[in-house]
């Protein structure tokens, strides 16, 4: 991909349709007595009509494809349930056989011309379920399946594809980023178990000219959500013809620091749902991608055949591939929209991130009552109000003895995801219980902030939790606690944060930009002399942590500072404003605050 623009094959479904296969072709000998109709289940043709699939692969390779996809777009337990083939042995057989068949074809063509090696990509489709959208209009918090079910289905598929010999994996046609995150979670788990890695391509799909996925994300937000998984290439496929895809590939090419690819449809569908654009016309429409130096690989999706791929291969052969480029190393979060934090190091107050506190049961008695009463509509209205009042990120915490934290977190995050004016901003999933915070991460397609982990339970637990958070693709808040307790003095705060930083960066592989330290804003004005310096200790520790832990961020619960004066809002507000002035001078990046008050002050 560094040397030339590689060519991906075209549509398997379009090619299969030309054979006009009947029910008996899909059944074959293995499924002749199956209880459900199988026509249309193209994935099982690798078992019942392997000759057809092999011929299709060979035609694409003969046309010039460097990469062919296995015929496994719907080969998961979840998707095969439509045909009553959701059995582990059947899904395993489909995927392994498909991989072996594709690899066999690649080996044969590579042998003919060793200077042009061919590669088999294990096709991992989106499934027929979505984790971010409710199938019930009446219940927007409901989901048709769980994150864990999606992960398990992908894990089974990937294992069989790799055992069948694929050279790479292609997570494709992603209409819901949370499904893709689940796929990458499963792939990472499998790689850890296997002890090796192969390249992974990730391809999203946008549903119309808004440039958004079906679940509402812009393509830069999609990249922010997926970048933690370090795919070898990111791209877009399906949905649009080449002309309409150009601005979104251009945006992705600017945002991503990996290879970029696309495989558009053969134009837009006609009134009958078919595609009329021929190979030469499609190749001409696609010429803009290499002319603008946007891509490293190209192929075809719906409506494309070996003719289209041949024309594309000839067209791109005259162009050089896009060169990979670095991107500014900053913290990149996302909701439906990207949130890229590029601090003003001369005045952190100008770029201060307001973490809205009103969806935290400890930060709002009104929110807590709404959750306890089961009034989630009111709770959602509080979240919306925070965004309207200037919150950049919504902090969600359900830690209270009267609340089942895990179920409340799942229900509320699902509701927030369903409201675009709320979910356009990133979420901070906040809990002292790790299982609660992980439940929240499993509901959000955006790149969240996880709040929090600490060394309180020891180094082994800390590393285990940190690896899980990284696998979910979240930034992480680290509290200044260790086995000896909470850090109160400047020296304790700095010592604990430095230790955590070293573990996260060197052992877990965390990007320093995604590490957020909370050195504990403790209450002052309590009448106890030993508490008097807590505010100054935080400010001084902030300055030192930023110096010793480059790239890291500093956060804190600002309302804790003047807790002694609760009920006296003018005094508390004055405390908070004065504190933030000095803390931001020292390098504080964000804080859990009343967004409206902070904006006004």
Question: What's the quick description here?
Answer:
This protein is 43% helix and 15% strand.
How would you describe this structure to a colleague?
Helix 11 packs parallel to helix 13 (306-316) and helix 20 (490-508) runs parallel beside helix 21. Strands 1-8-7-6-5-4-3-2 form an eight-stranded parallel β-sheet. Helices cover 43% and strands 15% of the residues.
What characteristics describe this protein?
eight-stranded parallel sheet; 20 strands; alpha/beta; 15% strand; elongated; 601 residues
User: What summary fits the major beta sheet?
Assistant: 8 strands, parallel
- Overall, the morphology is elongated
Q: How would you state the average pLDDT, rounded? A: 95
Uncertain residue ranges: none
| Termini gap | 52 Å
What is the subunit arrangement here? Answer: single chain
- What structural class results from the helix and strand content? alpha/beta
Strand order of the largest sheet: 1-8-7-6-5-4-3-2
Instruction: Kindly estimate the percentage of residues that lie in beta strands according to DSSP.
Output: 5-15%
* Radius of gyration using CA atoms only: 26 Å
The beta-strand count equals: 20
User: Tally the helices: what do you get?
Assistant: 23
What percentage of residues falls in helices of 4 or more residues?
40-55%
């Amino acid at each position: 991909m560094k040397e030339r623009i590689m060519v991906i094959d075209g549509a398997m479904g379009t090619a299969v349709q030309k054979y006009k296969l009947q029910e008996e072709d899909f059944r074959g000998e293995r499924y002749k007595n199956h209880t459900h109709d199988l026509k249309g289940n193209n994935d099982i043709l690798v078992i019942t009509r392997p000759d057809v699939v092999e011929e299709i692969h060979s035609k694409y390779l003969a046309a010039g494809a460097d990469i062919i996809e296995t015929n496994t777009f719907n080969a998961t337990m979840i998707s095969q349930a439509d045909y009553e083939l959701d059995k582990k042995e059947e899904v395993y057989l489909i995927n392994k056989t498909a991989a072996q068949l594709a690899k066999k074809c690649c080996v044969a063509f590579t042998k003919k011309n060793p200077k042009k090696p061919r590669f088999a990509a294990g096709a991992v489709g989106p499934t027929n379920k979505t984790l971010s959208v409710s199938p019930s209009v009446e219940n927007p918090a409901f989901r048709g399946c769980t994150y864990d079910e999606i992960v398990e289905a992908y894990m089974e598929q990937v294992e069989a594809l790799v055992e069948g010999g694929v050279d790479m994996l292609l997570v494709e046609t992603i209409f819901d980023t949370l499904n893709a995150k689940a796929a990458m979670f499963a792939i990472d788990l499998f790689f850890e178990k296997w002890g090796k890695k192969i390249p992974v391509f990730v391809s999203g799909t946008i549903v119309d000219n808004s440039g958004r996925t079906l679940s509402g994300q812009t393509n830069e937000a999609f990249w922010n959500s997926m970048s933690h998984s370090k795919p070898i290439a990111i791209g877009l496929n399906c949905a649009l013809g080449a002309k309409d895809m150009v601005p979104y590939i251009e945006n992705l090419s600017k945002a991503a620091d990996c290879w970029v690819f696309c495989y558009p449809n053969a134009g837009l569908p006609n009134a009958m749902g078919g595609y009329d654009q021929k190979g030469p016309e499609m190749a001409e429409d696609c010429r803009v991608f290499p002319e603008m130096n946007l891509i490293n690989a190209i192929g075809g999706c719906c409506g494309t055949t070996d003719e289209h791929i041949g024309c594309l291969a000839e067209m791109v052969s005259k162009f050089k591939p896009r060169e990979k480029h670095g991107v500014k190393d900053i913290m990149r979060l996302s909701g439906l929209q990207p949130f890229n934090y590029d601090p003003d190091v001369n005045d952190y107050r100008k770029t201060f991130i307001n973490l809205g506190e009103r969806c935290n049961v400890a930060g709002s008695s009104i929110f807590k009552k709404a959750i306890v009463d089961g009034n989630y509509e009111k709770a959602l209205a509080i979240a919306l109000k925070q965004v309207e009042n200037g919150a950049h990120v919504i902090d969600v915490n359900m830690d209270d003895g009267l609340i089942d934290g895990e179920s409340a977190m799942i229900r509320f995050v699902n509701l927030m995801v369903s409201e675009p004016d709320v979910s356009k901003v990133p979420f901070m999933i906040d809990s002292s219980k790790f299982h609660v915070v992980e439940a929240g991460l499993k509901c959000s397609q955006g790149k969240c902030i996880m709040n929090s982990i600490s060394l309180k339970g020891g180094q082994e637990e800390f590393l285990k939790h940190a690896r899980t958070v990284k696998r979910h693709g979240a930034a992480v808040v680290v509290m200044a606690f260790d086995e000896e307790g909470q850090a109160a003095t400047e020296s304790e705060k700095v010592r604990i944060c430095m230790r955590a930083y070293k573990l996260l960066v060197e052992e877990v592989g965390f990007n320093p930009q995604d590490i957020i330290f909370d050195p504990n804003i403790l209450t002052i004005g309590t009448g106890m002399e030993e508490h008097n310096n807590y505010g100054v200790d935080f400010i001084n520790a902030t300055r030192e942590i930023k110096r010793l832990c480059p790239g890291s961020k500093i956060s804190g619960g600002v309302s804790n500072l003047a807790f002694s004066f609760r009920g006296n809002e003018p005094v508390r507000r004055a405390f908070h404003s004065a504190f933030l002035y000095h803390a931001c001078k020292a390098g504080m990046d964000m804080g859990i605050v009343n967004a409206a008050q902070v904006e006004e002050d």
